[in-house]
Amino acid sequence: MRGPLGPVIGRYPSSDGNAGMGGGNKDIIKHNRKCRDVVFLVMFIGFWVAMIVNSSFGFNLGNPLRLNFGLDYKGNVCGDRHADLRELELRYWLNPNQVYQSGLKDSKFHLSNARSICLMDCPIPSEDSLNWVCDYPDGDIRLKVDDWIDRNYDYFADLTPELRNTSLQLLGPCYPVIFPSVNVYWTCQLIARASNVSMRHWQQMGGVNIIENIAIDKAIHRSINSRSAVLKRYVADVGKAWPVLLVCGGLVPLFLSVIWLLMIRHFVAGMPWITVILFNILIISVTMFYYVKAGWIGNDAISPIIGEHDPYYHVSAREVSHLHLAAVVMTTVMIIAFLSSIAIVRRILMATSVLKVAAKVIGEVQALIIFPVIPYVMLAVFFMFWISAALHLFSSGTVLQNDCSANCCAYDLKSKRVSCDQCCGYRLHYTSHVAAAILFHLFGGYWATQFFIACSSTVIAGSVASYYWARGETSPEIPFLPVFSSMKRLIRYSLGSIALGSLIVSFVESIRFILEALRRRLKLAKPMPGSWLGKMVFHSSQGCLRCISWTIKSVNRNAYIMIAITGKGFFKASEIATELIISNILRIGKVNVLGDVILFLGKLCVSLTSALFAFLMLDTHRYKSAHNKISSPLFPVLVCWILGYIVATLFFGVVEMSIDTIILSFCQDSDEHQGTAQYAPPLLMETLNDQNEMQRLTQ
Question: What pLDDT sits at residue 401?
Answer without folding.
Answer: 85
